[in-house]
Amino acid sequence: MGHLSTHVLDTAHGRPAAGMQVTLQRVDVDGRAQTVKSVTLNADGRNDGGPLLDAAAMAVGRWRLLFEVAPYFRALGVLLPEPAFVDTVQLDFGIADAAGHYHVPLLVSPFSYSTYRGS
């Protein structure tokens, strides 16, 4: 059964990004985004309460994840320039198979990030 999940690792400190805010949006054909869910990541850098989208909510289409990187690092006391080099990471992606497992990890520091389709 399909679902969408995420996992964020803070590579600057070598640990999960506990407390980071993440927003999931559905993007329509005109590019307008509607917020589906907003979560705060747990101590493991994941969403509490299961996947971001479960099998019933999975849908083919365009989606967006917004990772609030600068507020996360500022909350840890990291001194960032103003404006921050990496502020909000906006990741637009597609779900082509609603029965598939889509895992979107983010590796992040105040000055870089990397993502991929995980397993």
Number of domains: 1
For the record, the CATH class is Mainly Beta
Total count of helical runs of at least 4 residues: 1
Strand content: over 45%
Q: What is the CATH architecture term?
A: Sandwich
In what order do the strands lie side by side in the largest sheet?
Answer: 2-1-7-8
User: How many extended strands?
Assistant: 8
Catalytic activity: 5-hydroxyisourate + H2O = 5-hydroxy-2-oxo-4-ureido-2,5-dihydro-1H-imidazole-5-carboxylate + H(+)
Subunit structure: Homotetramer.
EC number: 3.5.2.17
Function: Catalyzes the hydrolysis of 5-hydroxyisourate (HIU) to 2-oxo-4-hydroxy-4-carboxy-5-ureidoimidazoline (OHCU).
Layout of helices and strands:
Blueprint: E1 3-10, E2 15-16, E3 21-27, E4 33-40, E5 61-68, H1 69-75, E6 88-95, E7 101-109, E8 112-115
Parallel strand pairs: 1-7
Antiparallel strand pairs: 1-2, 3-4, 3-5, 5-6, 7-8
Binding site for substrate: 7, 46, 116
Subunit structure: Homotetramer.
Family: Belongs to the transthyretin family. 5-hydroxyisourate hydrolase subfamily.
Q: Can you characterise this structure?
A:
This protein has 119 residues and is mainly beta. Helices cover 6% and strands 45% of the residues. The longest helix has 7 residues, at 69-75. The chain is built from 1 helix and 8 strands; from the N terminus they run E-E-E-E-E-H-E-E-E. A 4-stranded mixed beta sheet has the order 2-1-7-8, with no helix packed on it. The chain has a 4-stranded antiparallel beta sheet with strand order 4-3-5-6. Strand 3 and strand 4 (33-40) form a beta hairpin. The model has no long low-confidence stretch (mean pLDDT 97). The protein has one domain (3-115): Immunoglobulin-like.
